[in-house]
Design brief:
The chain is 0% helix and 41% strand. It contains no helices and eight strands. A hairpin with a 6-residue loop joins strand 3 and strand 4.
Amino acid sequence: MQQMPIDVGRLGTCLCVVPPEPRVNPETGEVRKDREGNTMYVVGVAVRQRDRRRADVIEISVPVEPRGVSEGVPVQVADLTATAWSIGDRSGVSFRASGITPAGPPGGVAGNPVPAKGKTGGGES
């Protein structure tokens, strides 16, 4: 599967709408880990492109627990990639980032996302 980098600078507003939680395999109930053994977390983020009225909600997997991210908090996303997938008659796009951090207050200075240690490519999502 090919990972496609996303230019987060063009996304506009990103807002946490579902707080971070460990990513769980729905069939086994086991917490998912990446290739380096890091627990994967998933965060629901509403994304509104600049100059667009419509917002989309995407689930983003990260290999480090996002600290300070909760529902309603504006966020910054580091190293966002999209991967198209297909299993049987189902298909979709999964999103992964190296980190998600709270953004600064509106009009203020935003913090820099801190990527997770290790590789950001490949692995389960």
